[in-house]
Design goal:
single chain, mainly alpha, 8 helices
């Protein structure tokens, strides 16, 4: 469930960042189906499951890639770099790679989102902050789960409140 939410959120993020948004298909069922097929194929070869990667997709868009070909070229170059230069890449210090990853993450950060927090409904702002901060302390899947938990808690509180109102009026609510 969390992976599906992550895939759909990544898809929407990329579509909102793309200037050709109107030309893109917005079929969630098709996207989830494609990821399902990719995950079945990955499992056959012992590869990890596929999830949406916003950083990679946004970096691809910012470098001018806007078609499926750009994604295929990205995968092709990763394969070449890892296949041919794997020995060299293995010698790179992990701290250096972490620094590069942190810099890329910072450069992809949308500061406008943080500036708009005061204008958002309180629940939306809280879910945003909880998810963003949780990513730093746990992992992305747990962070999305925690952010979504706020909405589930509000929904449950509404259901409990409705149940008490009906019972208080002499109605039996089950």
């Amino acid at each position: 469930m969390v992976a599906s939410v992550n895939i759909l959120l990544t898809s929407r993020l990329v579509k909102n960042a793309c200037s050709k948004q109107a030309a893109l298909d917005d079929d969630s069922d098709k996207e989830l189906g494609a990821y399902g097929i990719a995950n079945i194929c990955a499992g056959m070869f012992g590869a990890p499951i596929s999830v949406g990667i916003p950083a990679r997709s946004l970096a691809n868009l910012r470098c001018g890639g806007s078609t499926v070909i750009s994604n295929l070229m990205h995968a092709f170059f990763l394969l070449i770099f890892l296949g041919v230069g794997g020995g060299v890449l293995a010698r790179l210090p992990v701290a250096g790679l972490a620094g590069i990853t942190a810099f890329i993450g910072y450069s992809l950060l949308d500061v406008q989102s943080w500036r708009q927090l005061p204008q958002l409904p309180k629940l939306d702002a809280a879910a945003f902050v909880v998810t963003a901060v949780s990513i730093l302390f746990v992992n992305a899947a747990a962070a999305v789960t925690l952010g979504c938990t706020l909405y589930v808690a509000k929904w449950l509180a509404g259901k409990i409140g409705a149940s008490q109102r009906f019972q208080g009026a002499g109605w039996q609510f089950e």
